[in-house]
Amino acid sequence: MEKINAVVTGVGGYVPDYILDNEQLSKMVDTTDEWIMTRIGVKERHILSEEGLGTSYMARKAVKQLLQKTGVNPDEIEMIAVATSTPDYHFPSTASILCDKVGLKNAFAFDFQAACCGFLFLMETAANFIRSGKYKKVIIVGADKMSSMVDYSDRAVCPIFGDGAAAFLLEGTTDNFGILDSYLRTDGKGLPFLHMKAGGSVCPPSYFTVENKMHNIYQQGRTVFKYAVSLMSDSSAEIAKRNHLDKNSIDWVIPHQANRRIIEAVAHRLELPMDKMLMNIEHYGNTSAATLPLCVWDYEEKLRKGDNLIFTAFGAGFTWGALYMKWGYDTEKS
Ligand code: UT7
Description:
- The chain is an alpha/beta fold.
- It has helices spanning 22-28, 33-39, 55-70, 94-102, 118-131, 207-211, 221-242, 260-269, 281-284, 291-299, and strands spanning 5-14, 19-21, 44-46, 79-83, 108-112, 137-145, 163-173, 178-186, 194-196, 217-219, 252-255, 308-315, 319-326.
- Strand 12 (308-315) and strand 13 (319-326) form a beta hairpin.
- The radius of gyration is 19 Å and the shape is globular.
- The site of oxa(dethia)-CoA has 19 residues, from helix 2 and helix 7.
- Oxa(dethia)-CoA (UT7) binds at residues 31, 35-36, 39-40, 116, 155-156, 159, 219, 221-222, 224-225, 228, 258-259, 286, 315.
């Protein structure tokens, strides 16, 4: 039997209209545009501010755009998965809500939790469904409403995060395109440094947990930063080495958008110029599981059939890794 690869055949995305910029933030907490731009590289972030709307709302917009752009009939979609840390509800899954909202009748659906590495790990997972030969058309979504977990009085956290969603259509091909290799890891040692203290089964919600802000992101930024730099750099270097890619043959790196300085460190390690590092952190901040597909959504017109792409991410857990993809299509300039 011929080898089947999973290739991206379309991208859709969505960010909410409301923009929270550094000027507004500096009126909410003791910070400045200069500090945020120098230490993180975020100018503004999009926030889903309407009450009653959750992650599935953004995911729905992204998937609808994807279906419209690709012209694929929703009945053909056999599986849909949403990488998220901010599901609409503990249960049922955000993906199940999506099935109803976008009219998928022949798909099975599930959520996928690997924090900021959710979409990276999901790409490899979904690719295996395609590689098996059983599934022909699969949608994967990265979507997070990070504003639902951010304490907007904590200056060490609130400048970093934003909301957004983006989706890929994956299909099978016997050509040498698509997801060709991945190096993915998790160690579980990152728990003390990056987590939400309450709301799960260890510490269910109570008046105490709400009063003590235990439903917000807790992070020890400096430690997280240190691990993110070394593990994203090491995994990118490893995936490049074992696929015989170097600074000339790598066309683009799509890094998790957590901090501009982390991205610069990865570029340095791969000896790549910064213009090969795709970035939109300045406008969206860290949208967790949505950063990678949102980046592809923003830069889709730049990507050419046959381009060598390295995706890399790092997140809570700790989780980290890199993935090698050969891009499968050209986009007409709009
Ligand atoms: O996807 C994974 C999720 N998280 C990350 O990737 C985050 C990784 N970490 C980071 O990006 C950085 O560690 C931060 C951006 C969070 C912080 O930058 P840093 O350069 O590591 O700063 P720091 O935490 O070491 O703090 C330096 C100083 C402190 O003041 P003192 O103690 O030196 O007087 C902080 O209180 O900066 C202060 N500070 C701020 N000052 C102005 C912290 N946040 C702010 C702020 N504005 N927003």
